[in-house]
Write a structure and sequence with these properties.
heterodimer, A: mainly alpha, two-stranded antiparallel sheet, two-stranded antiparallel ribbon, 21 helices, 4 strands, 71% helix, B: alpha/beta, D-Maltodextrin-Binding Protein, domain 2, 2 domains, 10-stranded mixed β-sheet, 14 helices
Chain lengths: 565, 346
C-alpha cells in the first residue's frame, strides 16, 4: 500500500506550497492596493509634467522651471529650512525618546502623551499661536529682536513643533525594545558608559535615527500649510506648487514641482535600504527585556528636559485655547464662548467635527490593519523579492508627496469617467483611502522598525514546526508588536483629524472636515472660531491618545508579561 | 481581550461607522440635490440656499465652498467627469477660464438682458451671468496708524510714504486672484510704465506678500500691519466684528472683479440647474446680493451694506478682463522677476 504513505509526504509539500501561494497572493494584493492608493493617482498628476496645454512636450516644462531665477532660491530655501529643522528636532527627539525608554524617570506615559501634542493639532494652530506670541501685536514680540515671525524664523519654529512627534514616535519605537544581555555583556567587558551608549544604544537605534532624519527632512520639504500661513513670501518648493495650481491653475507646472519634490523621497528610500542592510535583530528569541535601573541624576536631567520641551508645546496649545475665547484680538481681550457657535462663521456648524471623528476612526481601523499586514509581508516573507521591493518603494513614497499633489492626483484618478472606482468619489470612503495613503509612510516605518527587532528565528522555528506563517503572525508577531500597532492606529487617527492639504480637494457637502472648516474660518477672519475648532480637534485626539495609554497598560499586563523579568 | 475578539470588534465598529455614514445621507431624498461649487462667503451660504429653494422648490442646494483658488483648481481637475451642476459666486476670471475650456453649458437666464452690460457674458455662446462686484480697497487700521503717525491715504500714491515702510501687506499675485486683480488694475489705470514704477516704490513698503487673498485685510484688522490691500467685503466684515478699521477706496479708482454664475456642461439635472440660473438674474436675487455687496448686476438695485465705503460704483476702473487674462503670464513673470527674486524681507 504505497498509496497510504504518499498522502503524508504530499501533504507536507502541499502545505508548504500553499503557504507560498498565500504569501504570494497577499503580496500581490498589497502591491495592487498600493498602486491604487498611491501609484496610479500620483502618476495621473505627475505625468502631466511632460505636457504643455495637453500636448506632449518632453522636458520643456522642467527646462522652463529650472531657468526661472525664482527656482534656485526656492530649492535653497526649502533645503535650508528642512536642514535647520532636522538639526533641531532629531537630537532633542532622541534625548526625549531616550528619557522615555531608558531611564527610570517618573510620569513617562504623561510626558510621552504631552510630547505628542503637536501631532494632535492642525498646522493652523501653531501658526495662530506663534502670531499671538511673536507677531507684531504679540506678547513676546521683543524676543524676536526686531526680526519677523513671517518668514524663515516662523516657518522653522512651526515646523519644529509639527515634526517633533513624528521623529519621537519613530525613535521611541527604535529604543523601546532592547536586549538587556547586551548591556550586561558590555558592562561585564568593562566598557565605559559613553562607549556603551555609542555602541549598544546608538548602534541599536541607528535604523530609527536614519528614518527619523529622513522623515523630518521630507516632512518639512513637502509641507505647505505652515509656509503658506506664516512664511510670508519666503518661497519654498511646496508653496511653488500652491502658486502654480491654486494661483494660476497650471497643473502642468505644479506637477513639475511635484516631481522635483519627489527627489528627496527617492534619496530617503535608498538611504533607508542601505541602513536596513546593516540592521540586525535586537530582540532575539532568547532576548531579555531591558529594564533601566535607577540613577537619580540621570533621571532628574531626563525629567527636566522632558518638562521643558512639553512645557513649550503646552504653551503653544494654551495660547490657541485662550485665543478661542478672546472676543476680538488684540483690541478686545474680554472672554466669550461665542466663537464656539461655529454656525456664525461656517454654515455647517459643528458637523465637520463629527465628520472628522468618523473619518479618523475609520482610517485608524482600516489603515492600521492594511499597513501592519503590509509591513509584515514586506519584512518577514522571504519569497518574491521584486514584489516586496515595489511594495516597499510605494510605501515610502507618500511621505515625499505634498498633500496638494496627492489630492489632485486623487481627483484625476478616482474621478476619471473610465474608472469603476469613481463611485467612491465624494464619499467618506475616498477620504479614508486618501488619509491612509497620505500617512502611510510613518506607520509603515514604525511597523518595520518594530518587526525588524523581532528575531527571524521565530519564523524559522515556526517553519520547521510546520506552522504556517499566518499563525506565527497572529500568535507571535501581533502580540509582541501590539504597542507599535496601537501607536500606528493612534497616529493615523490624529493625522486624519488634523490633515488639510490633500482632502481639501476631495470633501463634499456632507463630508467637510474640521481641519478644513478651521482653515476656511481663519481665511474669513474668524480666527477665534478657527482656533476653537483646532482646540476641539486637539481634545478629540488627546482623548484617543489617553485611551491608548490606558490600553497599553492593560495589554502590557496581559500580553507583554514576557517583557518583564 | 484576546487577539481575535479585538480584531472582530474593530471590524464590527468599522462596519457600524460606515453604515451610519450611509444612513446619514439616505434621508431627505424627495427633492433633487444640486451640487453648487462656490467661493461665496460662508455666512452667505444659508441665506442664498433658502432664497434659491424658495424660488425653485424642487431643488435642494448642496454647497461645496472653498477659496477661489481651491474651487477653480478642483473644478478644472474634475473636468472629465464634472461633479457640479452649477458654479455660483465665483470670480469671473475663473469662470472665463472654464468657458474657454468648454466646460460650461450655453444658457442665457430669462432676465439676463436687463442686467448691466459689464455683468453679462459678451462672447457667444452666452454662458455666464454676473451677480455682484467687489473691488480692491485699502483696509486701514486707525489704531495702528495713530502709533505709526500716518494719516488715512486718499490716493494709491499716498502708500509710497516712507512712514509705511514694512507696514503694508498685499496678496501675492501669483498665488491669489485678488493680488493679480490689484496688479492688473494698477497697470491698466496708470499705464504699464507708470504702473511698474508705482509697484517698485510700493514694494519698498510691503512687509509681506501673502498667499491668501483675504489675509491682508485680516492682518490689518488684527493690527499686524497698518494697512492691507484687499477686497472690500473682508474689510467691511472685520469692521463689523469690531476692528478699528477704515475701508478706503483711493481717488484714482480701483481694480475690481465680478462674481458670476453658470450652468455646468454635463449636469445630470440640467432643467433644474437652468431654473436656478434664471433665479440668479432676478430682482429678488439681486436684492439679496445687495445686502452684502455694494455693487450688483441689476441696475437700480442699490444698498450700502454696513461699513462699506460710499461711491464704490463710480470708482470702478474700465477693467478689460480679456486683457487681464491674455497678459497674465507675461505680467506675473515680470512681477516675479522684479519682486520675488529678491531675498525675502522682514
Amino acid at each position: 500500500m504505497t498509496a497510504a504513505v504518499r498522502p503524508v509526504e504530499s501533504l507536507v509539500t502541499r502545505s508548504a506550497s500553499l503557504e507560498t501561494a498565500v504569501a504570494g497572493t497577499a503580496i500581490l494584493v498589497l502591491v495592487c492596493g498600493l498602486l491604487v492608493l498611491v501609484g496610479f493617482p500620483l502618476w495621473s498628476l505627475l505625468s502631466k509634467s511632460l505636457y504643455v496645454r495637453g500636448e506632449f512636450a518632453g522636458l520643456q516644462n522642467f527646462i522652463a522651471y529650472v531657468t526661472t531665477p525664482a527656482l534656485s532660491r526656492s530649492v535653497i530655501n526649502s533645503l535650508f529650512v528642512a536642514l535647520v529643522t532636522t538639526l533641531i528636532v532629531v537630537p532633542i527627539a532622541f534625548a526625549y525618546a531616550y528619557a522615555l525608554t531608558r531611564t527610570s524617570m517618573r510620569a513617562k506615559g504623561l510626558l510621552y502623551a504631552t510630547a505628542l501634542v503637536p501631532l494632535f493639532a492642525p498646522s493652523l494652530l501653531p501658526a495662530i499661536s506663534l502670531i499671538y506670541f511673536f507677531g507684531n501685536q504679540g506678547f513676546l514680540k521683543s524676543w524676536m529682536f526686531g526680526g519677523s515671525i513671517y518668514g524663515p524664523a516662523g516657518i522653522i519654529m512651526a515646523e519644529v513643533f509639527y515634526c517633533f512627534p513624528h521623529a519621537l514616535t519613530i525613535l521611541v519605537a527604535a529604543l523601546r525594545l532592547a536586549d538587556a544581555r547586551l548591556y550586561e555583556a558590555a558592562e561585564a567587558l568593562g566598557a565605559s558608559r559613553p562607549r556603551i551608549f555609542y555602541t549598544v544604544t546608538l548602534g541599536g537605534a541607528k535604523y530609527g535615527l536614519v528614518s527619523a532624519v529622513m522623515v523630518v527632512f521630507t516632512l518639512v520639504i513637502t509641507d505647505f500649510g505652515i509656509p503658506k500661513v506664516i512664511g510670508g513670501q519666503f518661497s519654498v518648493l511646496a508653496t511653488d506648487v500652491y502658486k502654480q495650481v491654486m494661483g494660476q491653475q497650471n497643473f502642468e507646472m505644479g506637477a513639475v514641482v511635484g516631481v522635483i519634490l519627489l527627489i528627496p523621497a527617492v534619496i530617503a528610500f535608498l538611504v533607508d535600504r542601505l541602513a536596513q542592510r546593516r540592521q540586525v535583530a535586537l530582540v532575539s528569541a532568547r532576548a531579555v527585556a531591558y529594564a533601566p535601573n535607577r540613577s537619580p541624576l540621570r533621571d532628574a536631567a531626563a525629567l527636566a528636559l522632558c518638562i521643558v520641551v512639553s512645557g513649550i508645546f503646552l504653551a503653544v496649545l494654551g495660547m490657541a485655547v485662550w485665543a478661542s475665547f478672546v472676543t476680538y484680538w488684540p483690541y478686545n481681550l474680554g472672554l466669550t464662548l461665542q466663537h464656539y457657535a461655529f454656525e456664525i462663521a461656517d454654515s455647517s456648524g459643528w458637523q465637520p467635527f463629527f465628520n472628522s471623528l468618523e473619518v479618523a476612526a475609520l482610517t485608524a481601523i482600516c489603515g492600521t490593519a492594511v499597513i501592519f499586514v503590509g509591513a509584515y509581508l514586506v519584512e518577514k516573507i522571504r519569497a518574491f523579492p521584486v514584489l516586496r521591493f515595489v511594495a516597499q518603494f510605494l510605501a515610502m513614497l507618500p511621505m515625499a508627496v505634498p498633500g496638494l499633489v496627492l489630492g489632485l492626483g486623487y481627483i484625476f484618478f478616482f474621478n476619471a469617467a473610465w474608472n469603476p472606482l469613481n463611485v467612491l468619489y465624494g464619499t467618506i470612503a475616498i477620504l479614508v483611502l486618501n488619509c491612509t495613503a497620505h500617512f502611510y509612510t510613518v506607520p509603515h516605518i514604525t511597523a518595520t522598525t518594530a518587526l525588524k527587532q523581532i528575531d527571524p528565528e521565530f519564523e524559522a522555528v515556526s517553519a520547521s514546526l510546520k506552522v504556517p506563517f499566518w499563525r506565527t503572525f497572529t500568535r507571535v508577531t501581533v502580540p509582541i508588536s501590539l504597542p507599535a500597532i496601537l501607536d500606528i492606529a493612534v497616529y493615523l487617527f490624529v493625522s486624519a483629524m488634523t490633515t488639510v492639504s490633500a482632502i481639501i480637494f476631495l470633501y463634499s457637502t456632507d463630508t467637510k472636515l474640521a481641519s478644513i472648516a478651521a482653515v476656511n474660518m481663519d481665511e474669513a477672519g474668524f480666527t477665534a472660531s478657527a482656533a476653537g475648532m483646532c482646540v476641539l480637534v486637539v481634545l478629540a485626539s488627546m482623548t484617543v491618545k489617553l485611551l491608548q495609554v490606558l490600553a497599553d497598560r492593560l495589554l502590557l499586563d496581559r500580553l507583554q508579561a514576557w517583557r518583564r523579568r | 481581550m484576546s487577539m481575535n475578539s479585538l480584531v472582530r470588534s474593530a471590524a464590527a465598529s468599522a462596519l457600524v461607522l460606515l453604515a451610519a455614514g450611509a444612513f446619514d445621507r439616505a434621508d431627505a431624498q424627495t427633492k433633487t440635490r444640486l451640487t453648487v461649487y462656490t467661493a461665496l462667503e460662508n455666512d452667505q451660504l444659508q441665506p442664498f440656499k433658502s432664497a434659491i429653494e424658495a424660488a425653485v422648490p424642487e431643488v435642494e442646494i448642496a454647497w461645496v465652498r472653498d477659496s477661489t483658488g481651491v474651487i477653480t483648481a478642483r473644478f478644472l481637475a474634475e473636468k472629465d467627469n464634472p461633479r457640479a451642476d452649477l458654479v455660483m459666486g465665483l470670480a469671473a476670471t475663473s469662470i472665463i477660464v472654464f468657458e474657454t475650456a468648454g466646460l460650461l453649458e450655453p444658457y442665457k437666464p430669462a432676465g439676463a438682458d436687463a442686467l448691466k452690460p459689464n455683468f453679462r457674458d459678451t462672447t457667444e455662446p452666452y454662458t455666464w451671468t454676473g451677480m455682484d462686484g467687489y473691488l480692491g480697497v485699502i483696509c486701514y487700521n486707525t489704531a495702528e496708524a495713530a502709533k505709526a503717525g500716518t494719516t488715512p491715504p486718499k490716493s494709491w500714491k499716498d502708500l509710497l510714504d516712507a512712514k509705511y515702510a514694512d507696514k503694508l501687506v498685499m496678496p501675492h499675485p501669483a498665488s491669489s486672484g485678488t493680488g493679480y486683480l490689484m496688479v492688473g488694475g494698477w497697470l491698466q489705470m496708470m499705464g504699464e510704465a507708470e504702473g511698474w514704477k508705482f509697484m517698485d516704490a510700493l514694494h519698498q513698503n510691503i512687509a509681506v506678500y501673502t498667499h491668501s487673498g483675504s489675509a491682508p485685510c485680516v492682518q490689518a484688522a488684527r493690527g499686524e500691519r497698518v494697512a492691507g490691500i484687499a477686497l472690500d467685503m473682508r474689510g467691511a466684515s472685520e469692521k463689523t466684528k469690531g476692528a478699528p478699521l477704515e475701508v478706503i477706496i483711493p481717488s484714482e479708482g480701483t481694480g475690481w472683479e465680478i462674481e458670476a454664475a453658470a450652468v455646468v456642461k454635463g449636469s445630470k439635472n440640467m432643467a433644474l440647474a437652468k431654473k436656478v440660473a434664471d433665479w440668479v438674474a432676478t430682482k429678488g436675487a439681486n436684492e439679496l446680493y445687495s445686502k452684502t455687496y455694494a455693487v450688483v448686476a441689476m441696475p437700480g438695485v442699490e444698498n450700502l451694506p454696513p461699513n462699506y465705503p460710499a461711491g464704490a460704483e463710480k470708482s470702478l476702473i474700465k477693467n478689460d478682463f480679456a486683457w487681464m487674462a491674455t497678459n497674465r503670464e507675461r505680467i506675473l513673470a515680470e512681477w516675479t522677476k522684479r519682486y520675488d527674486a529678491k531675498a525675502a524681507k522682514k
